[in-house]
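Q: Entry one of two.
A:
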Amino acid sequence: MLLKLQLEHQMFGTPVEKLVLKVLTAEALLLIAVMKMAVKRCIKHYLKAGMNLRKSWKILAATQLKIVELCENAGINSTKLDDLIAEECDEECDSTTKDTNSRPYPAEDNFLQSFDLVEDFQSFFDNKDTCVPAIKDLKQLKVMSLFGYGLFHLILSLIPPTVLRVVNLLGFHGNRYLGLTSLRTVSKSSPNFRSTLASVTLLWYHLSLRPTFISNSQLLVSGINQGEKIIDQTLGPELRDTWITLYFSGTMTKLQGNVEGALELFQAAAVKAAHLRECKLMAYYEIGWCQLIIWNWTQASEIFLDLMAEARWSKGFYGYLAAISMGASGGSVAACRAILAGLPGRIKKTVNIELDTYCSRKSEMLASSKNLEYECKLATLEIIYVWKCLTLSEAQAEELIQAVDNRPQQLSPSCLAFSYLLAGLSWKTLHNPHKAEQAFKISDTITQPDQRDNYITVCVLSEMAELYHQLGQAENSILMAERARTGYKGYHLENRLYNRVHNLDIS
């Protein structure tokens, strides 16, 4: 439809109208590329995604040049236009900190009502007879192109290494700093759906994505501070009670270590998003995670069972989380085994991505386990750990050490290795680095018959690298980090662990 509209306006419409449609086309191509990379992970679709990215980039680059040309035709210096946008952003920032009614968004629970597309584009189509665009239209067009430009660079800078090689072959790369700067400019511009969407994108980057690939605590705090600033300055006080603000406030609170406070915010977000199905499910997912993090296995199981029934996507993953939570709680063994036994068939009907493969194989192993409750507890803690959400109190650390000491006799090599990894983390929590090192070494010596289970060894080596760094043993730290980065391939969750392994805080 978008391409049809563009063709219709190639011969009709003002230059600004044509550029508006070109920017929309570039954004559509960009989002199509992202969906191809996310959903259909094979070389064929990576190449198609790369071509769409290239088309999007060409359109955005041509648009930038055309804006400069329009500025010259209108007698406006393009640098002055950038200055006007910057001034507008500064004024917008100042006004949001001083005036609670500065942004004309409705203070209602439906966040999407702030996306008034008709109002955003109406000014471009009001004056069809004019050939010289007004400075206001040029400013808005510039902001539109900056949004696409920023989104392009941010997405390109975050794609997995496999896809990145394909993209580099096509002759371009992403600059994360430029992407974030462009999106920050858009988020502070005159209020419209793009400024709000830019703010949400920045919140997603700083609070949801960034914590998954950094190990440096200072960088994590910096991301939290950025998120807090965006919520206070760009979303504004009048959106304080909408589901999107409550959702990201909950994410920020969880990162700060206050899981109970985050749980309350996510529950409030779920209530606000009651009539927005996918938004409500996002909040439910975070509620389930909070219950997992604080070891409320029964409540977590109930949430994930609901998600498995209601969600359109990731049913296999939700089913796996529901089953291992149910098993860890000591609930119905028959129900837990039934869910686990049915998951491989359910997952095979979906896209065969990394997470699906992991959940399918783990489900088959657990369904036939003779120590179901113990191994389900290990599986829940493994998921929490790999997702970088495992924080242990001293009481929990002592409980885990006792559980490892009293473990069942017949454990698979992967479960045994992970139990010693947990013991090492527990000893670190209890400030006993010597015993932590011993536990990590035992875990490292356990050979995994299947290379897919080497993700545990990679995690152990990463923990040892950080432990040696804290102990001042730089040579051992570098050796462990190098083994983790280059010693193993083809293991489960390799893409998820890639950033953790390659961004260890040992410098």
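Q: Entry two of two.
A:
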Amino acid sequence: HPSTASTYNNLGNTYNRKGEYDKALQMYEKNLQIRLASLGDRHPDTASTYGNMGTCYKCKGEHVRALQTYEKTLQIQLTTLGEQHPNTASTYSNMGSTYNSKGEHDK
């Protein structure tokens, strides 16, 4: 149910803010499974979940995995929201920050 997904998302956000990234990822994964089942893989809320997961991976220093997850976010957002949407811009920013953390300043 979408309300259950939102609860898992909120729990993930709380764990993320506390720096408990593995617990946050567990909550986001549960959220993702519900959103995929109820909304599909091309919905902005699904993209948001991928984005939250990408942030956790970045904070854990798992930059490649973060970028892979942000790429999923971006593809959904470009399709559903468009390139000029603020959420899409935020994903570009997150990706740029992750490349910067990796030392890939040219990207």
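A: Comment on entry two: The two ends are 39 Å apart (CA to CA). The helical segments are 2-18, 21-38, 44-59, 63-80, 86-102.
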